[in-house]
Specification:
This protein is mainly alpha-helical and 165 residues long. It contains seven helices and three strands. The chain has two domains: 1-29; 32-160, no CATH class. It has helices at residues 3-30, 34-46, 49-53, 89-92, 98-106, 116-120, 124-137; strands at residues 76-79, 82-84, 158-160. The structure holds heme C. Heme C is lined by residues 47-49, 51-53, 77, 84, 86-87, 89, 92, 108, 110-111, 113-115, 119, 130, 147.
């Protein structure tokens, strides 16, 4: 056996043994730790995500079980832009990898009253924590109603914003 064949053979053997360890290490790096989930919980509460994306959150003064968080809301907000509904983020995040969420968040632009400009300036650590929490909670709920153009009358209940001229 030539030297180069021996080396490549050894490398193949090494790769075969190394692979499970590499995969294991990658899984470990991806698995959310308790601290990251706590950070996510903290952020979705103080950054207001629950205020709009969790049904009844305001009315219950935040006393809504985590299992119902961020399932989207049927309460629309109507203004000159039309009527918007906070989407179901529990379903939304299932479609994205963490990397896709980071890229989406960095370029996010949505209609009012979504504070997309706040999401854009969140640190990667914070965006990852929000993602980890939502993925940890898993998919739940129904899709929120679709956006309605300004000339479409939304069914009640909705919030009507009367803006200065
Ligand atoms: C004041 C209410 C409000 C708050 C606070 C809020 N959202 Fe939203 N969000 C909305 C509404 C309404 C929409 C739908 C906007 C539209 O239809 O263009 C939306 C849309 C989104 C979208 C989808 C954007 C898209 O079109 O792809 C994401 C993701 C999102 N919100 C995440 C968050 C996160 C994370 C937080 C907390 C950091 C948050 N939102 C806080 C109301 C809110």
């Amino acid at each position: 056996m030539s030297t180069s064949r021996t080396i490549s053979h050894l490398m193949l053997v090494a790769a075969a043994f190394a692979a499970p360890w590499i995969a294991h290490a990658a899984d470990k790096a991806k698995a959310p730790d308790a601290k990251q989930l706590d950070r996510g919980r903290y952020l979705v509460r103080i950054a207001g995500c629950n205020d709009c994306h969790t049904p009844g959150y305001e009315e219950a003064a935040g006393n809504i079980p985590e299992s119902q968080w961020l399932t989207g809301d049927r309460l629309g907000t109507r203004g000159p832009w039309g009527t918007t509904y906070p989407p179901n983020l529990r379903m939304y995040m299932q479609k994205l990898t963490e990397a896709q969420w980071l890229a989406t968040a960095r370029g996010l632009k949505a209609r009012p009253p979504m504070p997309w400009f706040n999401i854009r300036i969140m640190s990667d650590t914070d965006l990852r924590a929000i993602y980890a929490l939502i993925r940890h909670l898993g998919p739940a709920g129904e899709p929120a109603p679709a956006y309605l153009a300004p000339d479409k009358e939304p069914p009640p209940p909705y919030i009507q914003l009367v803006l200065p001229k």
